[in-house]
Design brief:
Largest sheet: none
Number of domains: 1
Number of helices: 4
Distance between the termini: 38 Å
Number of strands: 0
Strand content: under 5%
Shape: globular
Radius of gyration: 16 Å
Length: about 120
C-alpha cells in the first residue's frame, strides 16, 4: 500500500524537524568546545527550517509556533550566568531557534496572506 503525497510530505517535514533538533543539540554541545562547522550547520538548519515551514505547519498551528519561537528567542541566553552548563544550554537553544525561525517566518507570511486575501 503506497502512501499518498500529503502523508509523504508530512513525513519529510517530520523527519526534517527530528534531524534538525538532533543537529541543534549536537552542535550546541560541540560549538561550546570547538566552533568548527558552525557556518555549515547554520545553513543546514535554515534549509531544514524552510522545509518544516512549508511541509509541517498548518494554519491552526501558526499561533503556537510563533509563540514558541518568540519564547526561544527571548530566553535563549538567560541561562548564560549559570556556571558550567549555562553556556551549553544557551548554545543549544540558539541552534534550535535557528532551526525554527525560518518555519516561523514562513508561517507568519502564510497567516498574513490568508488575512489579506480577498474573499470569505
Amino acid at each position: 500500500m503506497a502512501l499518498d503525497k500529503s502523508k509523504t510530505l508530512g513525513l519529510v517535514g517530520f523527519w526534517s524537524f527530528i534531524v534538525g533538533l538532533i543537529i541543534a543539540v549536537v552542535m550546541g554541545i560541540v560549538a561550546t568546545i570547538s566552533p568548527a562547522f558552525v557556518d555549515i550547520t547554520i545553513i543546514v538548519l535554515i534549509i531544514l527550517g524552510i522545509i518544516i515551514g512549508f511541509l509541517n505547519i498548518t494554519a491552526k498551528e501558526v499561533p503556537t509556533l510563533l509563540l514558541a519561537v518568540i519564547a526561544l528567542i527571548v530566553v535563549g541566553n538567560v541561562f548564560a550566568p549559570l556556571p558550567g552548563i549555562g553556556k551549553l544550554i544557551g548554545s543549544i537553544l540558539t541552534y534550535v531557534a535557528v532551526l525554527v525561525s525560518p518555519a516561523a517566518i514562513i508561517a507568519a507570511v502564510k497567516a498574513l496572506w490568508a488575512i489579506g486575501k480577498p474573499g470569505d
